[in-house]
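User: Design a sequence. Structure:
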């Protein structure tokens, strides 16, 4: 598995790659990950994720200082390093998560061998990187065009190309000229999250994600400032990023700094607790190819107010498990949030239950089973066949649980 960003990085692509790698290992596969080193130390060693040991090949990397943590592998050595690792591991499959550096190198190395199945998954949107390139606005359009041409070359080497949602698949096809891109959810293990149906004692809005421009967190903070005082709304922002100081200053300017709390990076346990304690989840981002944070919120039984942009409408259904608002419209977001926060508990619980129901189709095991079938030679997503596998595995798991359940005798 090749990734330009991997744990300990905190973003959707890194989290998906980690969960897929550990999930595959739990199912008996030998998994190797190629990723930039998280520090100056580089080499090959074992790392543990979700209780599974993964062999990780950490490439020598350098900080990209316009970004608050991003490191990149040496592009001038990526072909040599990829050849070396592919020769050493002799994989059946190469699955790259980014076309930028690591995916480019691994896809070229795999194609040289000729007998390796290649799968490419796109998590990239130009908005995720443009603000960190330091390019003037007049050059950015050309840079985006060059990025998509590079993506076409790398993804063109893959036997199958995937991305998390149908909207994202259409976006990738339009941007690159590729066709046949498959939509496969990043998936989530809903059992890791704890919904709370206790009567709420306050109104807490939660945002989780990188504190960067494309997330448009300023829209959410402005929305909080526009909400009636009697609601006593508190906003928790979990995540770090380059705009942290700017947004702290914005909350002071708007007079809501006593009600906007910046947690920075937190542990997994603290993150799950934040979801459980929240009343509503707010996602104002305009550049989500799926939004794992929104999925985690839904698995925690939270109603969601989200921008009607990119893939978020795939998760948020108006007046079912939350509401959509026009991107950038703080007043409309405030109105949608107020509508949820003024609901009687029973009606709010209906939204919470709807989130729990809608997230079921994004089961992580289903995602892993789908990729296993692609690894073994399938070129499409056969929903009926996957359902059969899931049903059989569910029966086997139930049987194991019954056998292992002690009896009083």
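Assistant: Done.
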């Amino acid at each position: 598995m090749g990734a330009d960003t991997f744990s300990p990085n905190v973003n959707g692509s890194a989290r998906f790659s980690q969960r897929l790698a550990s999930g595959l290992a739990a199912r008996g596969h030998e998994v190797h990950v190629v990723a930039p080193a998280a520090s100056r130390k580089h080499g090959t060693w074992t790392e543990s994720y979700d209780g599974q040991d993964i062999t990780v090949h950490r490439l020598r990397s350098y900080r990209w200082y316009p970004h608050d943590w991003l490191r990149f592998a040496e592009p001038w050595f990526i072909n040599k390093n990829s050849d070396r690792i592919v020769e050493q591991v002799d994989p059946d499959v190469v699955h790259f998560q980014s076309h930028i550096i690591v995916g480019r190198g691994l896809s070229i190395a795999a194609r040289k061998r000729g007998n390796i199945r290649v799968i490419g998954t796109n998590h990239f949107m130009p908005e995720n990187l443009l603000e960190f390139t330091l390019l003037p606005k007049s050059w950015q359009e050309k840079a985006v065009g060059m990025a998509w041409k590079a993506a076409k070359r790398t993804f063109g080497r893959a036997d199958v190309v995937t991305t998390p949602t149908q909207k994202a698949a259409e976006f990738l096809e339009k941007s690159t000229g590729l066709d046949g891109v498959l939509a496969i959810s990043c998936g989530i293990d809903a059992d890791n999250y704890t919904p709370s149906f206790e009567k709420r004692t306050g109104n807490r809005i939660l945002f989780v994600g990188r504190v960067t421009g494309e997330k448009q967190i300023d829209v959410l903070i402005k929305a909080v400032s526009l909400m009636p005082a009697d609601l006593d709304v508190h906003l928790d922002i979990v995540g770090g990023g380059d705009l942290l100081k700017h947004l702290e200053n914005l909350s002071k300017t708007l007079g809501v700094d006593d009600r906007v709390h910046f947690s920075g990076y937190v542990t997994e346990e603290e993150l799950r607790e934040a979801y459980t304690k929240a009343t509503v989840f707010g996602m104002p981002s305009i550049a989500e190819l799926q939004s794992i944070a929104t999925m985690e919120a839904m698995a925690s039984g939270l109603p969601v107010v989200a921008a009607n942009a990119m893939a978020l409408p795939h998760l948020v259904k108006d007046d079912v498990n939350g509401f959509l608002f026009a991107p950038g419209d703080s007043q409309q977001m405030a109105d949608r949030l107020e509508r949820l926060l003024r609901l009687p508990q029973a009606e709010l619980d209906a939204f919470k239950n709807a989130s729990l129901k809608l997230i079921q189709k994004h089961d992580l095991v289903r995602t892993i089973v789908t990729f296993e079938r692609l690894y073994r030679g399938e070129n499409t997503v056969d929903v009926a066949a996957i359902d059969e596998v899931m049903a059989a595995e569910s029966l086997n798991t139930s049987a194991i649980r019954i056998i292992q359940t002690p009896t009083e005798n």
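The domain at 12-183 is CATH 3.40.50.2000 (Rossmann fold). Confidence is low (pLDDT under 50) at residues 398-409.
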